[in-house]
Amino acid sequence: MAAAAPPPPPSPAPEAPNDVPQGSTPRGHPLFARIRLAHPTDVPHIHKLIHQMAVFERLSDQCIATEASLSSTLFTSPPFQSFTIFVLEVSHAPFVEHLQYNNAAYPPVTKVVNLDLPINDPDRDLFRSNGGVLGGDACVAGFVLFFPNYSTFLAKPGFYIEDLFVRECYRRKGLGKMLLSAVAKQAVKMGYGRVEWVVLDWNVNAIRFYEEMGAKILQEWRICRLTGDALNAYVNAQL
Amino acid sequence: MAAAAPPPPPSPAPEAPNDVPQGSTPRGHPLFARIRLAHPTDVPHIHKLIHQMAVFERLSDQCIATEASLSSTLFTSPPFQSFTIFVLEVSHAPFVEHLQYNNAAYPPVTKVVNLDLPINDPDRDLFRSNGGVLGGDACVAGFVLFFPNYSTFLAKPGFYIEDLFVRECYRRKGLGKMLLSAVAKQAVKMGYGRVEWVVLDWNVNAIRFYEEMGAKILQEWRICRLTGDALNAYVNAQL
After folding, report:
1. Which SUPFAM superfamilies does UniProt cross-reference here (chains A, B) (predicted)?
2. Can you tell me the distance from the alpha carbon of B123 to that of B140, in angstroms, rounded to the nearest whole number?
């Protein structure tokens, strides 16, 4: 992203409360959803999701992430200690246990969303995952990237959510809420004090959704960003 | 900090460009300044600085940090990999090398600020440091706490500055700029893409100072915060 660009918003498409009853019993057109820790083999999907997000935000000219640059900067620390990614997978068949994803730091979480109509996913093949599903039709539907931040007033870490994205055809089904809740739940589990992210001030639907999730919107604070040439000018700075 | 509280602003008292010529040759009333990595033994001073900052922001009721809670949550990772603190020390005598602070990850940086008048520091005894100064009159004048963040668009880490604080009697002498520049320089050195922080929208002096430092102010973005009871409600959340 270039100097003047805003950061990618979490959940650019807010997840409205889902009118379809949810539960663990499949009915109608069940959609099986799973959240698990990302694995280095997920990078091609994560890369595509990031670029879809950039297009959605009309900032694709500023998105220079490549699979190689993501691979070399992510997965450098154990989960939750630094940059951490949850991947959201969906399937029309139940997920089965898969050794590759059976991470003790975060055992995968599943739920069933019962839909009135089946979902037509035009990008299913692009996002097909090897998640170990009976029938083998699982695909990646979204992700959340977060990392620890710190509050000196609380003297506690928290989590900052950099990105939260659900692919268009899977929105408004409670899946963004599922991703955000997973981060919040993990924060509480670790005794952390806050979960924070940013939203565009004109995105009233997203703001309403976040407030329903319990978040406060801090109206007075502005982000300051030093990047590009302005940052590089400090390379030889005489302090 | 409580649920609705804003985060502590970096540099609540902006450092105006210093009219006093600076350099390495002491003249007039020289003030020797040094930036170094914080050490666990600095916690009592850092704790006092955090509370001074909270008073300055009129948010002291929300500052529950104690020396013990700071000690147990900071210094858990090598410098720059997670929460990192630079301490700013000042002295009327030159700093000498001190084995305790001779950290290979960040060798201390010093400069001389030549002042027309000497500084009267009412809290000198409270902030006295064992920094190894000829004459032994060094004290802690400020700090900056920062940690890595991540941009998916750049596929690069950056630094987020949570706090930047200079004690009142040492403001407007270029010391806040020195702290911010030290973080920016370290970011460039590590190949990072951004340095970010937040500012209150009505703090026009701080905004002007940050813009002079090369930062862009992102006007459209708002911080969302989930904390306190609203966060703890997720402890048993059914995703």
Report:
1. Acyl-CoA N-acyltransferases (Nat) (SSF55729)
2. 10
pLDDT of residue B24: 63
- CA distance to A191, A195, B169, B188, per residue, from B182 (Å): 31, 28, 21, 10
Q: What is the pLDDT of residues A49-72, one digit of tens each?
A: 999 999 988 889 999 999 999 999
Provide the 3-class DSSP secondary structure of residue B43. helix
Q: Which helix (H) or strand (E) holds B225?
A: strand B221-227
φ/ψ (deg, to 5) at B179: -65, -45
Supply angle C-alpha A187, A207, B222, rounded to 5: 75
Q: How far is CA B216 from the centre of its chain?
A: 20
- The answer for residues whose C-beta is within 8 angstroms of residue A199's C-beta and 6 or more apart is A9, A10, A206, A207, A210, A217, B221, B222, B224
Partner residue facing B153 (CB), from A1, A83, A157: A1
Q: Please state, in angstroms and rounded to a whole number, the distance separating the CA atoms of residues A31 and A117.
A: 10
- Beta carbons of A152 and B145 less than 8 Å apart: yes
User: What's the rounded Cα separation, in Å, for the pair B170 and B176?
Assistant: 9
With b for 16 or more beta-carbon neighbours within 10 A and e for fewer, the A137-147 pattern comes to: bbbbbbbbbbb
ipTM exceeding 0.95?
no
Say what the pLDDT of residue B6 is. Answer: 36
Record the pTM. 0.88
Q: How far is B125 from chain A (nearest CA, A)?
A: 23
Residue ranges for chain B with pLDDT beneath 50: 1-22
Token pair in block for residue B38: 């914080």
Residue (of A40, A49, A38, A41) closest to A12 by Cα position: A49
Q: What is the Cα–Cα distance from B107 to B100, expressed in whole angstroms? A: 11
Tell the residue number behind the tokens 């409360």, with chain if given: A17
Q: Are B178 and B35 contacting, i.e. CB atoms less than 8 angstroms apart?
A: yes
- Strand ranges across the sheet with B221-227: A22-23, A109-115, A29-37, A84-91, A139-151, A156-166, A194-200, B221-227, A216-218
